[in-house]
Write a structure and sequence with these properties.
The chain is mainly α. It contains 10 helices and no strands. It has a domain of 237 residues. The chain starts with 16 loop residues before the first helix and ends with a helix. The N terminus and C terminus are likely disordered.
Amino acid sequence: MTSSLVCVPAATTSLSPVGEALHRVGITSLHLQARAKMHAPQEGPAVQQQGAIARAGNDLHSNLVAMSRYCMQQLVPRIHSLMIQAETVAEAIDALAADPEPDLSAELGAIAAELDRCGIILRGHARSSLRVTGMIRMSEQRLWGVLAAELHRIEGTEGPMMRGCARIESLAFELAVALDALMEGTSDLPLQTRNRLCDILIRVTSEDGSKKISDAERVDLINFLCNGMGEIRGIIENLTDERRSLGAMSPELDKAMLIATEASAQSVMTSRLEDVFRELDGQFSVMASEYRKLARKSARPTGRQQALNRIASDARDWRAAMQALREPLSLSQGGPDPSVQLRTPPRKRPGLSSSLRA
């Protein structure tokens, strides 16, 4: 068998702060989708297991499924809506930069309103995510607490299972960081390849992971791990060994640790996305305020020239940002959130928004 992965250098583009933040949203969304797909609701009635660890693990797993459903059904569509609205801003700025006789006061005010709409989309997510993320974090903390209490009761503070859990927690965190770095583009692989590898790695390190990848994916993974990715290979090998040892001592504990580390990784990615959302909201707010100031000053010759210079510079920045977003959004699942009212109708010409709906 031969690998279907193509090693083409990833494109690097210098982006503005807003462009970098939008690109991080697109990349983080792909990583989060790969994790969320692992926790689809199970068919049939839930099996009620006995014991404090099993009950806490079931509770966390249920909330992990709820968070995954929220990510795929609400968060990802809202990200699509944000990107479509960002393209509206980019196209408005580009059109203004190309206009030989622009009405700066009116056009700058209109662009500021479009930037406000981006902030509304972001704040709408913040309100809807609070309950879901709060539930999983509380149940995650509860499971860690139950694990610590039960292990202390069984073997004290320095028993083999306690040490094994600590090593698994550390290795799982290292793997999540390594996958995050892979998605961010620290290698020379193109994003499509990095996204596929991240998806395979997340599945193969889950429960019964070897059964969740195809033969072709297994070949791709072996080739990837044997060609310049020794760090990830070492983490996976050590993590597999530690889980095997813990499973031999306590299958229940091994399963609980798997749920706990998966929940931790998904919580970290969701928190990171929320941080970028807050950063973007602040940047959009500042930019809207600056555009309104430029609109007021544009009646004077010096103010008009200042506005024209700013628009010309911003048009270049937004074109670069939209170009950088095309690939992550083309790899993302689903479409825009139908509950989000976009101010500007979809463009008829090919663009980012039309490619999202394709």
